Amino acid sequence: MSTKQMHLGAFLQDAGHHIAAWRHPDAPVGAGMNFDHFHYLARRAEAAKFDMIFLGDQMTFQYEEDESLGRTSRGANFDPLTLLSALAVSTRDIGLIATGSTSYNEPFNIARKYSSLDHISKGRAGWNVVTSWTGGEARNFNRNEVMEHGLRYQRAQEFVEVVKGLWDSWDSDALVDDRQQGLFFDPSRLHRLDHQGEFFQVRGPLTISRAPQGYPVIVQAGSSADGQTLAARHAEVIFTAQRNLAEAQKFYREVKSQLADWGRDPDSLKIMPGIFPVVGESAAHAREKFEQLQELVSPEIGWAVLARHLGGFDLSEYSPDDPVPDLPLTQGNQSRQALLLAFARRENLTIRQLYWHVNGTRGHWAVFGTAEEIADTLETWFREGAADGFNIMAPWLPGGLDEFIDQVVPVLQRRGLFRTEYAGSTLREHLGLQIPESRYTTHKAVT
Amino acid sequence: MSRTLHLGVFVETTGRHLAGWRHPDVDPHAPMRFEHYRQLVEIAERGLFDLFFLADGLAVRDRAAERLGRTPKAHFEPLTLLSALAPLTQHIGLIATASTTFNEPWHLARKFASLDHLSQGRAGWNIVTSSSQAEADNFSLATLPTPQDRYRRASEFVDVVRGLWDSWDDDALVADQQQGLYFPPDRLHTLNHQGEFFTIRGPLTVSRAPQGYPLLVQAGSSAQGIELGAKYGEVIYTAQTTLADAQQFYREIKSLAQQAGRQAEDLRVLPGLFPVVAPTRSEAEEKFAELQSLLHPEVGLAQLEHHLGGVDLAGYDLDGLLPELPPGREYTSRAELLINIARRDKLTIRQLYQQVGVARGHPLLIGTPADIADFMESWFHEGGADGFNIMPGWLPGGLNDFVNLVVPELQRRGLYRTAYQGQTLRERMGFKRPASRYHQPEQEITHHG
Questions:
Q1: Beta-carbon separation of A70 and B184 below 8 A
Q2: What is the distance in angstroms between the Cα of B95 and the nearest Cα belonging to chain A?
Q3: In this predicted model, what pLDDT tens digit does every residue of A307-365 receive, in sequence order?
Q4: Smaller CB count within 10 Å for chain B: N or C?
């Protein structure tokens, strides 16, 4: 039987996605900077045949210097690309995806680093394309304020085009390595880009040969209108925060329907909502486990997290039992703000309820239940046009991922919804994505 | 314990010699094969080397190479490659070049700190400025900044990076689960740097590196390069061809360092050295002749033109003396060195490119293990070097030869360690762990009479 199967990613974040996860009794010491911890998680996800592990990134300390400072584990982490490079040698099959900002990087540097990771891992690299939206990041890169949302995405668009162009610098058969003739590469198979754009002027060629996957897999994670356009044009995987089936289906349809505008097939983009799963012996037991984590949230951090999700608005001075007030969108992460506010309206949430909501699941979709129940939900989303797979955001690590792998994955496998062996060895093969053709294969190089 | 040599290996894909990749023992695909580098670092660690060094450029800098296709111009990005080698090694220092011209301090501070954590204290940063228009062309810059501007930026860049490395105190991460305190806020420091080139708030998102700071390496020998090295460099790579020149350089940079408030022993000077070694001299000569025979004339000439700053030598007789070069251009320290060698030794263009294609301004030594050790010993004892950056002509063969033949000879003479000692690269290099700027040791109180 060859039915379509879902894709699974493990979104790794220091001690876990719950803000208080580092206080969980099983949390490893200094998780964000503990190589053995990440090594364990990567090996575990690989043994479970996950498509990928994913490391997000922010290039700033996340919280302001207020009373919340020092109360989260989020501030100290490895640089994602160095960490994935180190993990590449102790894994064999699993995809390795890291966030890389288009706002504070140069295309040449990003193009070669991801290509290098693709070579080191023999075809398992992926780049999560983001624009950087926090003021803290701006201030680490010579700016007083965040670039305007639209401008950020224009830059991102051109950035991705340049990176793809640089990835085409060398034809896949360029390195002839002919010792006799003294020809290392065939000059007609090396191309310079000569890009002249609004944001970038880049000659090329890149100093690294064509990646095993042609291009590392391009991932996109912002769900704003600009983000969707970027994804429709370039992305092969979307990580998205969707909170219920109807919204997820709508998002899925909308994004996939845009693909045709760019001459793309619906299958060339995999939509993977984030899920925050808590597995228990019963739904009630799962909730109990979750409440144990919630009890570890200190109020100092709780209010700071809420403010951050609302683009900087501090609600701690309001009465916690008031309804959530109307707030304007900021230059920050608009899709996240809009999602959260819409949710608060629809559910008639008080400030206190919203507080617990973001501190529990970071605005992502939480599912509490037995392994069978969680598998039911994933199956429904997968079969009913809401998802091609899921990005697993374990509440605490390694325990939360271990439980998902030990309990939920076997159910999915038994139902034929998830692989029991890797069929290929590259991330593209796991995802069923084509190797992109070079822009030069059709029209020959001009020398 | 008496002073001993420090050794590094300079890994240029398939070796220093431009035709190294054509050597019959070399895998021509090696530049893009991870296993090649894995093998090299294992050999270097077997040889108890201090440093494993990957240089870098941000362009196929040599346009002739682009056109000719006769040299290995496709290679890994150094920081990703060293990160992958980190868990596979235990002792050796992992050094990568990274440009201060086309990077942001925050990125480099974070990547090198991250590598230092991954390697448990073995990372080093070779600080360079990018000096080719080809690189500027890849970074949206129509004109390369002047050397003065580049070095002013480099100096501020290093200052910012060191500041970011001090963001977290060594004991900042207490991770007190009971109190819900991951770190005491007074152990985290915001840099708030405001300078000519950079405005950077900080703090960094990586905790303080095991070495405090990753090791700082510097390699340019222009006046500005030496000044930067004297101010910040801990390991200094340099190209010196005679003992007298090496001694002069050694004295100069150490005295400049002292003028900058540092101690002479805060710097280790490691000139480059290209050894071709065999049990007998005639075997060594044979090995070298084989390499030379593989050097394609187009490559040799293009390389010479590149090192002379892009002059055009087409149309000149290859067997005539190097012509007068156009005045009014700015030549790099490396170009001037080559021109001086050509004048001094009355070299033809062909002879010069053969020499350039081989060691490119570094001493070439062909001989027995004793010959090589004699040379190293004299430079080491006579104030020309604290160690050497070994540049094998072809890889891994040239490195294997050195480790198998020269290392035991150096050990026999008591010039080189017989086992690794110390945990971090700094400890092996004999350097102190830098104190954070927020915890400087008490200044000695001076009494005024």
A1: yes
A2: 14
A3: 878 877 888 888 888 988 888 777 667 777 888 888 888 889 999 888 888 887 766 79
A4: C
Cβ-Cβ contacts under 8 Å, B24 against chain A: 179
Interface test with A, best of B23, B54, B75, B80 (most A CBs within 10 A): B80
Contact A204, B61 (CB under 8 A): no
Residue type, B422: G
A430 SS3 class: helix
User: How many helices and strands (H and E) does chain B possess?
Assistant: 16, 11
Min Cα separation B331/chain A (Å): 24
- Closest Cα in chain B, distance from residue A30 (Å): 7
Q: Chain-wide mean pLDDT for chain A?
A: 92
CATH superfamily of B6-280+362-437: Luciferase-like domain (3.20.20.30)
In chain B, the residue whose alpha carbon lies closest to the alpha carbon of A174 is: B69
pLDDT in tens, A152-188: 999 999 999 999 999 999 999 999 989 889 999 999 9
Q: Please state the ipTM of this predicted complex.
A: 0.92
8 Å CB contact between B117 and B82: no
Q: Which one of B39, B77, B206, B207 makes the best mutation probe of the A interface by having the most chain A beta carbons within 10 Å? A: B77
Determine the Cα–Cα distance for residues B243 and B384; give it in Å rounded to an integer.
6
> B116-162 pLDDT, tens per residue?
999 999 999 999 999 989 999 999 999 999 999 999 999 999 999 99
Alpha helices in A168-297 (DSSP H): 225-234, 245-259, 283-294
* Identity of residue A347: E
Q: Are B21 and B29 in contact, with CB atoms under 8 Å apart?
A: no
Interface check B118 vs A, CB under 8 A: yes
Residue B29 to residue A204, Cβ atoms within 8 A:
no
Residue A293 dihedral angles phi and psi, to the nearest 5°: -70, -40
- Which tokens go with B335? 């170009």
Closest CB from B181, B190, B203 relative to A70 = B181
The answer for B 11-30 residues in CB contact with A (under 8 A) is 19, 21-22, 24, 28-29
For residue A96, which residues of chain B lie inside 8 Å, CB to CB?
A: none
Q: Going by C-beta distance under 8 Å and a sequence separation of 6 or more, which residues neighbour residue B149?
A: none
Using the beta-carbon criterion (under 8 Å), do B205 and A83 form an inter-chain contact? no
| CA dist., res. A73 & res. B173, Å (int) | 9
Cis peptide before B363 (omega within 30 of 0): no
Yes or no, beta carbons of B134 and A205 under 8 Å apart: no
CB-defined contacts A:B, below 8 A: 224
Q: Which chain A residues are within 8 Å of B190, Cβ to Cβ? A: 65
Confidence label for A64 from pLDDT (cuts 50, 70 and 90): low
Domain A7-279+365-431, second-level architecture: Alpha-Beta Barrel (3.20)
Nearest to A60 among B57, B175, B205 (CB): B205
Specify the 3-state DSSP secondary structure of A123: coil
The arithmetic mean of pLDDT across residues B194-213, rounded, is: 97
Positive or negative, the Cα torsion across A184, A190, A194, A195? negative
Bridge partners, residue B127, by sequence: B98, B218
Contact of B74 with chain A, judged by CB distance below 8 Å, is answered with: yes
pLDDT recorded at residue A69 = 81
The pLDDT tens digits of the residues spanning B241-291 come to 999 999 999 999 999 999 999 999 999 999 999 999 999 999 999 999 999
Indicate the angle between helix axes A107-120 and B78-85, nearest 10 degrees. Answer: 30
Residue A152: enclosing H or E segment and its boundaries?
helix A149-167
In tens, the pLDDT along B401-422 reads 999 999 999 999 999 999 999 9
